[in-house]
Specification:
Elements lengths: L7 H14 L8 E6 L2 E8 L2 H12 L6 E4 L2 E2 L9 H14 L8 E6 L2 E8 L2 H12 L6 E4 L2 E2 L5 H13 L9 E6 L2 E8 L2 H12 L6 E4 L2 E2 L2
Parallel strand pairs: 2-3, 2-4, 6-7, 6-8, 10-11, 10-12
Antiparallel strand pairs: 1-2, 5-6, 9-10
Length: 221
């Protein structure tokens, strides 16, 4: 059965309801503008984690074609921390995380902005490092400059990703093509929802040796 195209007004209502539904978000300070399925989030939130959660919640809504996240982080007095405090907390969070090898990620902090550098083997480790520091008090943004090291041939990488897409219940491999150059992967084709586009991207990132994913999949409702 074909899915009815939703108007921008309907889409905005759905997004606002999804933001209210997400318990980690105080949606009162978030503005939502929708034009032809493209959503702009504006306003101020109390933490970088809340900013990320708002974007993820918006992407879950059917009909969203793209999200421009213009939310700013405005710390209340209770959330403010010195850069030294944040750097110490971030180093500790990375050191004690079971999914991260020790002493391979470096942290610098400037005005609450945390920058991560170093070399890791897997995308999930890179994402885990960012997640580990994003929820710390005082963090206003996270810049993830960690580099991934490729370990497999492009053809082997392409084959593994296609097999993974084929066994995923949410994805139709006949509508998706995969290109690989070194550790860089390009996804092309079409999917039915933003969630499927995100799922395809996550599937590609899960392959060993992937250093970058260019997600060119089109969302066609």
């Amino acid at each position: 059965m074909a899915t009815r195209t939703r108007s921008d007004v309907e889409l905005k209502d759905d997004i606002l309801n999804e933001l209210k539904w997400e318990p980690s978000i105080q949606e009162a300070g978030i503005g939502v503008i929708v034009e032809s399925g493209i959503v702009t989030l504006s306003g101020a939130v109390e933490s970088w984690a809340t900013r990320s959660a708002a974007e993820e919640a918006t992407q879950r809504v059917t009909g969203v074609a793209a999200v421009a996240n213009e939310l700013t982080v405005r710390l209340t007095t209770s959330y403010e921390r010195t850069d030294a405090d944040i750097a110490g907390a971030a180093a500790g969070a990375l050191h004690w995380h079971v999914s991260l090898p020790r002493d391979r990620v470096r942290v610098t902090v400037e005005n609450g902005r945390v920058t991560l550098r170093g070399e890791l083997d897997w995308q999930f480790q890179k994402a885990t490092a960012a997640e580990a520091v994003a929820h710390l008090w005082g963090v206003t943004s996270v810049v993830n400059e960690i580099v991934l090291k490729p370990r497999v041939s492009p053809e082997d990488l392409k084959r593994k990703i296609l097999v993974a897409i084929e066994r995923n219940a949410l994805l139709d491999v006949s509508d998706i093509t995969v290109e690989a150059q070194g550790g860089r992967v390009v996804l092309k084709g079409r999917v039915r929802t933003w969630a499927e586009k995100d799922q395809a991207c996550q599937t590609a990132w899960a392959a060993p040796g992937v250093t970058d994913v260019d997600n060119q999949l089109r969302v066609t409702y």
